[in-house]
Amino acid sequence: MFVRLRRLVFAMFVFSLVAWAADDPLLGTWKLSLGKSKWNPPPGPQRQTAKYERFAEDGVFVTFEGVNAEGHDTFTQYAGTYDGREYPVPSSRTGVTLRLKRLDASTTERTDYKAGKPLITSRRVVSKDGKTLTVTQTGTSENGQRVNTRSYTQLMEEDSFSRVRAGARVPITTGQGMQYMDVGVRLDCKLAEREGSLQMELTLEITSFAREEAQANPLLRNIGSEVRTAVLPGKPTVVTSIDDTASKRRYELEVTATKIK
User: Fold this and answer.
1) How far apart (Å, rounded) are the C-alpha atoms in residues 257 and 102?
2) What is the CATH number of the domain that holds 34?
3) 17 and 114 share one domain
């Protein structure tokens, strides 16, 4: 059984229409709906407005205005056509470029590139009634933030129980002397085959220090999940997803169970 723990980087923005153009559903001014949007890692902006205007014969001129999570005003612009060519990103100081693609009448994509390698793809979809714009971003940001994946492998027999421990035992000084504290990943699993599927019982616990610097009485951060579910052999399955509000990360536990004859 292969178990993958990963941190995802994605964002989903939902905008509501303020003003619009009749011939292209994307063109117009859109206001960010904070309550319907998601960011990973959070937090997202406090406010944002996106204005899409016609550029050349088949292109778009985009202006973003708003206030970021720290309360600072933001303003960015770019322009390009849906011809697959690379256009500069004015706000980038490291040579990031973008390409625009029209997938259908209501769906377009922007992909950012650096040194010829793709970074983030933003897919923009306008609803059938033309009142909602959903922008979904996936990929790697310009500063290198990306999916962080760790893999653990367990060889198990049916109806058996196994454990994975990854981390360290850290010495802590207490009033009773020196004690040791386990910090890292604890993964317990029980497996059984039932009617063509594999029944799993999983317990995941991740423990880390809330602060990087050493302390006499350290503060620990702990997140965990207990799952009982069925998975199909050979098919990667995300069995749990956890938002850590303190570290602004999301953890997913993905399981691939392979039957060995």
Assistant:
1) 39
2) 2.40.128
3) yes
Predicted TM-score (pTM) of the model is 0.51
> Hey, what amino acid is at 42?
P
What pLDDT score was predicted for residue 8? 37
pLDDT digit string (tens) for 99-148?
Answer: 999 999 899 999 999 888 888 888 999 888 888 899 888 887 666 554 44
Residue 4 is assigned to a structural domain of this protein: no
Domain shared by 28 and 133, yes or no: yes
* Residues 167 and 132 reside in one and the same domain: no
Residues of the chain with pLDDT under 70: 1-22, 40-42, 141-158, 167-175, 178, 196, 209-218, 245-250, 259-261
Query: In this predicted structure, what is the pLDDT of residue 109?
Result: 94
- Give the pLDDT of residue 217: 59
55 shares a domain with 159: no
Residue 222: per-residue pLDDT: 81
Please check whether residues 71 and 109 belong to one and the same domain: yes
Same-domain status, 81 and 195: no
> Is 2 domain-assigned?
no
Q: Do 76 and 91 contact (CB within 8 A), yes or no?
A: yes
